[in-house]
UniProtKB/TrEMBL annotation:
<keyword id="KW-1133">Transmembrane helix</keyword>
<dbReference type="GO" id="GO:0022857">
    <property type="term" value="F:transmembrane transporter activity"/>
</dbReference>
<feature type="transmembrane region" description="Helical">
    <location>
        <begin position="36"/>
        <end position="55"/>
    </location>
</feature>
<keyword id="KW-0472">Membrane</keyword>
<feature type="transmembrane region" description="Helical">
    <location>
        <begin position="155"/>
        <end position="175"/>
    </location>
</feature>
<keyword id="KW-0812">Transmembrane</keyword>
<feature type="transmembrane region" description="Helical">
    <location>
        <begin position="196"/>
        <end position="218"/>
    </location>
</feature>
<feature type="transmembrane region" description="Helical">
    <location>
        <begin position="124"/>
        <end position="143"/>
    </location>
</feature>
<feature type="transmembrane region" description="Helical">
    <location>
        <begin position="262"/>
        <end position="282"/>
    </location>
</feature>
<feature type="domain" description="Major facilitator superfamily (MFS) profile">
    <location>
        <begin position="1"/>
        <end position="379"/>
    </location>
</feature>
<comment type="similarity">
    <text>Belongs to the major facilitator superfamily. Monocarboxylate porter (TC 2.A.1.13) family.</text>
</comment>
<dbReference type="InterPro" id="IPR036259">
    <property type="entry name" value="MFS_trans_sf"/>
</dbReference>
<feature type="transmembrane region" description="Helical">
    <location>
        <begin position="288"/>
        <end position="313"/>
    </location>
</feature>
<protein>
    <submittedName>
        <fullName>MFS general substrate transporter</fullName>
    </submittedName>
</protein>
<dbReference type="InterPro" id="IPR050327">
    <property type="entry name" value="Proton-linked_MCT"/>
</dbReference>
<feature type="transmembrane region" description="Helical">
    <location>
        <begin position="352"/>
        <end position="375"/>
    </location>
</feature>
<dbReference type="GO" id="GO:0016020">
    <property type="term" value="C:membrane"/>
</dbReference>
Length: 381
């Protein structure tokens, strides 16, 4: 089950976390501001998350396969339309909107489906599936890095699309629902927000997702400012994604065997925020390699523990799809505005990164505070 979920996350989050390589390329080719280019990547994440209530409720109602296949069609259409796009708005609509819709119709149903298969070791199972973001986030930028100078942008993106078509079709064949459908019930379980632990968790994760993707999108641009070549700037992203194998598995193992998912995500949030503040002092190439490795290690824990925490806050399996979708929708709003806001702060700093770095670090420290408050209330109950 988690092997096929791994393929889904490879296609969705692996491509999203490769956007840093596109950010650097688009900045050179499209002559748009960093903030404008960031809207392409942030729109992908926003639509992936914001479709959560709809796709999650459809999964609860027994429509997993039609939703998933429709998402795969949108995803591949977006990739191949990107390959023939030549201006900003064409890329925004194909890579940002069309792929974002496709990703959302696959990722949220798959995560809610996966969580129903495991009562014990759920965090670990989700962690294994979540490493798809790491493998995809390594392979896809590496393909861009190697193919772009040789065959050009169009055929490079088509090559990515062919890989995604094979993986997505495999997942569509083998993923299957486990529990009976829940036909009746609202699209959104508004009563969940009346539960203080669920509400505080969503607020905390809003702040996490507001800041966590800024380094993924801009580490290559920062490297270029330090004199990195385009190839080496993409390698920074490869490293940041690559260490996520450990960063996604280790926290989830710790969550299952010792601390629990909520305790573990608090630690990940504190560590990631602190490391982002330390980025301010990085002014050498060696230092930037070190930052990329350490940040990628801890940021991966935030991403992989998010679904496990949502599942732990929703004991009713028949409501898990809709309630997980609600949590994903909150994260989607944060993801939509986070990286463009970071780009705007770079412009406000006249090309400097200080304002954006401090803002991103503050977001994740604030997240840790709300998550700790949530944990306290959960223990009291």
């Amino acid at each position: 089950m988690f092997n096929n979920s791994h393929l889904v996350i490879w296609n969705s989050w692996g491509y999203i976390q490769s956007f840093g390589s596109f950010q650097t390329y688009y900045a050179a080719q499209l002559h748009e501001s960093p903030s404008s280019i960031s809207w392409i990547g942030s729109m992908q994440i926003f639509l992936l998350f914001i479709l959560g209530p709809f796709a999650g409720r459809a999964t609860d109602a027994g429509y997993f396969r039609p939703v998933f296949i429709t998402g795969l069609i949108f995803q591949l259409l977006g990739v191949f339309m990107t390959s023939i796009s030549t201006n900003y708005w064409q890329i925004f609509l194909s890579q940002g909107v069309c792929q974002g819709l496709g990703n959302g119709m696959q990722f949220v149903p798959t995560m809610s489906l996966l969580s129903t298969y495991f009562a014990k070791n759920r965090s670990f199972a989700i962690g294994i599936a979540a490493t798809g973001a790491t493998t995809g986030g390594m392979v896809m930028p590496a393909m861009v890095q190697q193919l772009l100078p040789k065959i050009g942008f169009g055929w490079t993106v088509r090559a990515l699309g062919l890989v995604m078509a094979v993986l997505g079709t495999t997942a569509a064949i083998f993923l299957k629902t486990r529990i009976p459908p829940r036909k009746a019930g609202p699209l959104v379980e508004w009563s969940a927000f009346a539960e203080p632990p669920f509400l505080l968790f969503c607020i905390g994760m809003f702040f996490n997702f507001w800041g966590v993707y800024f380094p993924f999108y801009y580490v290559g641009t920062y490297g270029r400012a330090l004199g990195f070549s385009y190839t080496n700037s993409v390698s920074l992203l490869l490293l940041m994604n690559g260490v996520g194998v450990i960063g996604r598995l280790a926290p989830n193992i710790i969550a299952d065997r010792a601390l629990g998912p909520l305790n573990t995500i608090i630690i990940s949030s504190l560590a990631t925020g602190t490391i982002t503040f330390c980025w301010v002092a990085v002014d050498t190439r060696a230092g930037l390699w070190g930052f990329a490795a350490i940040f990628g290690l801890f940021a991966a824990g935030i991403q992989s523990l998010f679904p496990a925490c949502l599942a732990s806050l929703t004991p009713d399996l028949q409501k898990r799809g809709s309630r997980m979708g609600m949590g994903f929708a909150v994260a989607g709003v944060a993801s939509l505005t986070g990286t463009p806001l970071g780009g705007a702060l770079i412009q406000a700093d006249k090309g400097g990164f200080l304002y954006a770095q401090m803002w991103a670090g503050a977001c994740m420290i604030t997240a840790a505070i709300f998550l700790a408050w949530n944990l306290e209330l959960s223990l009291d109950e």
